[in-house]
């Protein structure tokens, strides 16, 4: 027998051969586009996220049109709330005439075929920037917060949201939201749980974008978001959320947590989503802007890696660029 006996390179000889044997593919149908929307007029660029802006409602309709023309299945909305509307309990979060309910119903009436995902969490609305209500010691109160998240999610569902995505990491909120949605006639509203959400420093640019960096100050979210050291705990979080009625699970951030995506996809039969967060986006953009990496190739590679790990969908600020590239 001549050496080498096995030639793995034989299968890599030509582009058609490599395509034929690809184990995973990235498609436009994998993409969810996160969008920031504000109450003011016009677009405000987000300095730490090149190419990303806070949109007004007209800008949002244009983005939705773009999403549809690129065949992106869904958008995820994040509100930027003016300082005077922020309170300690975040009451603007369940104002039926608030920004998110208005733009959700605007989107669904104009573009009924576009999926609309909304974030369930109080941080854009609280004067202290935490995802829930706090006591005098600054501790985020679990059960009190869950009852407010319930009001927020019902307001979003009433406005026409297709998917509510709790990103707050309170205990027991999935069960409460599922029961509330069933009881109030929203049994088709889907729950995408940010089940394994880590207390990550990669959310920095997002907090600039929604303006919670300033309100949060030096405080952190370590008493509710997960420790970056833990993997088995993520599986426990995910199992609980499925038992409580989540339809889909999310891991967040993405690239530093591919092990968690991989394991979740292996262990659970529910769809697993992954969020390529603002800090990941900012890093790739910054390196590309310096000419240190190839922007398109690194973007596609980072997204395909999520598919390889087992994700069935990806929230990414690159959604329009990636879709345009994939549609070529
Ligand atoms: C807030 C929320 C955050 C993100 C999505 N929803 C930030 C946080 O928890 O402080 C981060 C998204 C990103 O960084 O792109 N509930």
Quick overview of this protein structure:
By secondary structure, this protein is α/β, with parallel strands linked by helices. The chain is built from twelve helices and ten strands. The model has no long low-confidence stretch (mean pLDDT 97).
Can you walk through the features of this model?
- This protein has about 325 residues and is of the alpha/beta class.
- It has a single domain (about 25-325), classed as TIM Barrel (Alpha-Beta Barrel).
- Helix content is about 40%, strand content about 15%.
- The protein is built from twelve helices and ten strands.
- It has helices at about 15-20, 55-70, 100-110, 140-160, 175-185, 205-210, 210-215, 230-245, 260-265, 280-290, 295-310, 320-325, and strands spanning about 30-40, 45, 55, 75-80, 115-120, 165, 190-195, 250, 270-275, 315.
- An eight-stranded parallel barrel has the order 1-4-5-6-7-8-9-10, surrounded by nine helices.
- Helix 2 (about 55-70) packs across helix 3 (about 100-110).
- The N and C termini lie far apart (about 45 Å).
- The model has no long low-confidence stretch (mean pLDDT about 95).
- The protein binds ligand PBG.
- Ligand PBG binds near residues 119, 123 and 167.
